[in-house]
Amino acid sequence: MARAFTQKGVETVKPDKIHRREIPDKLLPGLYLVVQPESSGAKSWAIRYRHEGRTRKYTFGTLEQFDLVAA
Length: 71
Hints:
Elements: H1 7-12, E1 21-24, E2 31-35, E3 43-51, E4 54-62
Antiparallel strand pairs: 1-2, 2-3, 3-4
């Protein structure tokens, strides 16, 4: 379910034990926080968009590289 991101909310998202999660931002369609499974727990930013009728995903950095404002 989409929700409006906050810096504190993004930092406190917990990883799933097995599955990768893609959490959409409610205020900026196409922006996702990608949270890897518990084994690494890495968080990164991704943009989903359409090009020539096909859905694409571009991952552009980790949470450590880009905070919410920069993303």
